[in-house]
Amino acid sequence: MFYRPADGHGLPHNPFNAVVTPRPIGWISTRDAEGRDNLAPYSFFNAVAYVPPQVMFSSTGTKADRDGTKDNVANIRETGVFCVNIVEYAMRDAMNATSASLPAGEDEFAVAGLEKAECDTVACARVAAAPANLECRLTQIVRLEGAANWLVLGEVTGVHLRDDCLVDGRFDITRYQPLTRLGYRDYARITELFSLSRPDD
């Protein structure tokens, strides 16, 4: 099968997200200028550079009360900071609860029953029990093609690692089993890994 996205795929559901998988989930927390916290998952998320460490996520929808975007992007525009909370398999239901479309200013931490902790380098809340948190300072917001597509880039200014995930000096993802986003309504968890040496190692 071949299709041009501009012409449509002719399938019951769009296969694009099922092709580009698995994708890490950026569970993004922000605080607005009035001090109200927000938390929502984004499946277009990844690390993009080592030095300095940088991450990105993109928001692809709108809310009627947020002028062409969603709460997190609007909050980041106001404050210039955000936090990426890494999602473990055990937190899948809490993560899903925070994907609900709530009125601006309503606290998803409370809705999902999640304990907050304050970030150390930015004025923002983080998911206290997450296996890792990346505190970030905004570097760019880029308007992408499409009606409501925004790319947010940030420099990581602080990193929290949960102690039980550190084994012999390495961050062991099998200790918490990262939740990943697939296509449609599908997810997967990482339970095992293997290593490959590069030819020039």
Short description:
With about 200 residues, the chain is mostly beta strands.
Explain this structure.
The protein contains 4 helices and 14 strands. It is globular, with a radius of gyration of 17 Å. The mean pLDDT is 95. By secondary structure, it is mainly β. The chain has a 7-stranded antiparallel sheet with strand order 3-2-6-9-10-5-4, with helices on one face. It has one domain: Electron Transport, Fmn-binding Protein, Chain A (Pnp Oxidase, Chain A). Helices cover 12% and strands 35% of the residues.
Approximate strand percentage: 35-45%
| Annotation field: number of helices | 4
List how many beta strands DSSP finds: 14
CATH architecture: Roll
The CATH class turns out to be Mainly Beta
Order of strands side by side in the largest beta sheet?
Answer: 3-2-6-9-10-5-4
Biggest beta sheet summary? 7 strands, antiparallel
Mean pLDDT rating: 95
Distance between the termini: 39 Å
| Rounded radius of gyration (Å) | 17 Å
The rough form would be described as globular
Q: What is the CATH homologous superfamily assignment?
A: Electron Transport, Fmn-binding Protein, Chain A
Indicate how many domains the architecture comprises: 1
Helical coverage, percent range: 10-25%
H/E element order: HEEEEEHEHHEEEEEEEE
Low-pLDDT sequence parts: none
Domain Flavin reductase like: 18-173
GO molecular function: FMN binding; oxidoreductase activity, acting on the CH-NH group of donors, NAD or NADP as acceptor
Protein name: Flavin reductase family protein
